[in-house]
Write a structure and sequence with these properties.
Number of helices: 1
Strand order of the largest sheet: 4-3-2-1-5
Helix content: 25-40%
Radius of gyration: 26 Å
Order of helices and strands: HEEEEE
Shape: rod-shaped
Number of strands: 5
Length: 108
């Protein structure tokens, strides 16, 4: 036997169903991928070692000369070292990879 109050609860659930669906959609399209990227970035920063070529969020490219807990020393030019907060590292490049626009010198 149903009471009039049961119909009110059902109507309330039906009214909130679109909001619940939007929240679930946001979770799978926005929140979850962002958490995944944050974990990947944290792993990338933890794996930085001396000799790696890195790209900073400002666009500077340099070679890691010293690794500390929260900072790294980066050589951006011969004999020019700067201290950088690890969180500003955007990318770690392979030491042996040749950049796409670089070419081997022509023999002549």
């Amino acid at each position: 036997m149903t009471t009039p109050a049961d119909g009110g609860v059902l109507a309330l659930i039906v009214q909130f169903l679109p909001f619940i669906a939007i929240f679930v959609l946001f979770y799978f399209l926005l929140i979850r991928p962002q958490q995944k990227r944050a974990k990947e970035h944290a792993a990338l920063i933890a794996a930085v070692k001396r000799g790696d070529t890195i790209v900073l969020s400002s666009g500077l490219i340099g070679k890691v000369t010293r690794v500390e807990d929260a900072e790294v020393n980066v050589e951006i030019a011969p004999s020019v070292n700067v201290r950088v907060v690890k969180a500003m590292i955007a990318e770690v490049r392979n030491r042996t990879a040749i950049a796409a626009n670089d070419s081997k010198p022509a023999k002549g």
